[in-house]
């Protein structure tokens, strides 16, 4: 049998308390100081060291008053309690006097007054031990076990029988394990399968209730394997109510990997992965670059395909652009028709008929490229978009530049001579215009056709 019925429950309670006091965040553990019942709510521990003891949790065996004991003890005197050889010393120490005819001791030698023997104990001057219930339960457990043992071995015989002389400890232990009774404190008592008494604890907490004022307060209880803890009542510091963290390294944030300190398995430094890297859940020490066309998800743990974003042909912007382009195409074709109808007239010839057709062709291409721009992207569509956007404007600007240059050279030459300048024939103009356009074609060709 164990001397104290609550000792073996201490380890169980501590494990459960630490488990409940732990936080769900990875690797975050609360630093908790848990005191045993040997120094719970004792001024010897906290007096003068309040700042150091603040925030402590302690165990206090849960005990209820023993019914009738207070009245019994308050009615004791030296005369009616001769069986207690230390009661005289208690009396002298409590009333600060020397009891008549008592032996001289180092403790009463300095008392100058003599006790009247009429002193009376009162509740105002006495503080009863709160754990008296355990003594009462222990005495009752032995008395009931002995009574059951006597009934079985002595068969109703008064006094000790030969079967109980001497009383054997292992035999008595069997009866002790089986006792079950309601004690004088009205709590039920019995031993568990391990031979321990019922584990009942009050969980008390030393906190600063206001600046400079400290107090032990109850924040929970532990009743025979069940822990009840009021976390909201626990305050580790008055200015810092949240519990402190006890970790070597905090968890890395999203998008960060760990670099362990050499020789350590619980301490690390966090470093950032790049914008297009992820950290695999299976390996927290490396960053992996996402393949082309993918990007990290919000948790930076998986690579997701980048969705293709383009103008839908049914969108308002696309319909509006195609409507304007269609109008432009119709106007361009109308003008082309006018030029074809009047192809051999002096006005059309004087305007540079061949270059005018090239110019109209370039303008028509500009309007037609709009329809390619609103198509769903593909390798061919993207190539046409990139090449066509530059090519059609190059045709327009090359035709305008060639026409302007031809007219300029004709007027400049007319001021000096009646001879016609070189390279003003339609064939020459088309070659010059083609040469200018070829510069753009050669610039675009490596991008799409090589």
UniProtKB/TrEMBL annotation:
Keywords: Cell membrane, G-protein coupled receptor, Glycoprotein, Membrane, Receptor, Transducer, Transmembrane, Transmembrane helix. Its main location: membrane. GO terms for molecular function: G protein-coupled receptor activity. Residues 317-441 form the G-protein coupled receptors family 3 profile domain. It is found in: Cell membrane. The keyword Ribosomal protein does not apply. It is a multi-pass membrane protein. The chain crosses the membrane at residues 317-340, 355-377, 383-401. It comes from the Eukaryota. InterPro entries: ANF_lig-bd_rcpt, GPCR_3, GPCR_3_9-Cys_dom, GPCR_3_9-Cys_sf, GPCR_3_C, GPCR_3_mtglu_rcpt, mGluR, Peripla_BP_I. Gene3D superfamilies: 3.40.50.2300, GPCR, family 3, nine cysteines domain (2.10.50.30). One of its GO terms (cellular component) is plasma membrane. G-protein coupled receptor for glutamate. Ligand binding causes a conformation change that triggers signaling via guanine nucleotide-binding proteins (G proteins) and modulates the activity of down-stream effectors. Belongs to the G-protein coupled receptor 3 family. This is Metabotropic glutamate receptor 4-like. The lineage of its organism: Eukaryota, Metazoa, Ecdysozoa, Arthropoda, Hexapoda. The gene is LOC103513562.
């Amino acid at each position: 049998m164990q001397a104290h019925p609550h000792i073996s429950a201490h380890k169980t309670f501590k494990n459960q308390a630490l488990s409940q006091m732990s936080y769900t965040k990875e690797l975050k553990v609360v630093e908790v100081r848990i005191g045993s019942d040997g120094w719970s709510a004792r001024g010897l521990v906290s007096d003068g060291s309040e700042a150091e003891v603040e925030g402590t949790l302690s165990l206090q065996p849960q005990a209820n008053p023993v019914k009738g004991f207070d009245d019994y003890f308050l009615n004791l005197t030296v005369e009616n309690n001769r069986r207690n050889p230390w009661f005289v010393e208690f009396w002298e120490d409590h009333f600060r006097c020397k009891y008549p005819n008592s032996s001289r001791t180092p403790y009463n030698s300095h008392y100058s007054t003599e006790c009247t023997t009429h002193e009376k104990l009162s509740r105002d001057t006495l503080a009863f031990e709160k754990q008296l219930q355990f003594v009462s339960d222990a005495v009752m457990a032995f008395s009931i076990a002995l009574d059951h043992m006597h009934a079985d071995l002595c068969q109703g015989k008064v006094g000790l029988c030969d079967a109980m002389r001497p009383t054997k400890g292992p035999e008595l232990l069997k009866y002790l394990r089986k006792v079950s009774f309601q004690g004088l404190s009205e709590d039920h008592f019995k031993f568990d399968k391990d031979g321990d008494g019922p584990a009942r604890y009050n969980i008390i907490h030393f906190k600063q209730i206001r600046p400079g004022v400290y107090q032990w307060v109850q924040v929970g209880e532990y009743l025979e394997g069940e822990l009840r803890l009021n976390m909201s009542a626990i305050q580790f510091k008055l200015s810092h109510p949240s519990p402190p963290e006890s970790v070597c390294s905090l968890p890395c944030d999203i998008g960060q990997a760990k670099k362990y300190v050499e020789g350590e398995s619980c301490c690390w430094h966090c470093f950032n992965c790049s914008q297009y890297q992820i950290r695999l859940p299976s390996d927290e020490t490396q960053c992996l670059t996402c393949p082309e066309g993918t990007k990290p998800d919000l948790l930076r743990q998986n690579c997701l395909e980048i969705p293709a974003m383009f103008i839908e042909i049914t969108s308002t912007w696309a319909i509006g652009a195609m409507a304007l382009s269609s109008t432009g195409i119709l106007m361009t074709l109308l003008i082309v028709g006018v030029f074809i109808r009047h192809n051999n007239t002096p006005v059309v010839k004087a305007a540079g008929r061949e270059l005018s057709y090239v110019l109209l062709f370039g303008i028509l291409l500009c309007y037609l490229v709009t329809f390619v721009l609103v198509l769903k992207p593909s390798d061919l569509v993207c190539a046409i978009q990139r090449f066509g956007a530059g090519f059609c404007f190059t045709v327009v600007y090359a035709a305008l530049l060639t026409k302007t240059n031809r007219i300029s050279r004709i007027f400049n030459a007319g001021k000096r001579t009646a001879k016609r300048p070189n390279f003003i024939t339609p064939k020459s103009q088309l070659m010059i215009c083609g040469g200018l356009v070829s510069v753009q074609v050669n610039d675009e060709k490596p991008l799409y056709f090589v």
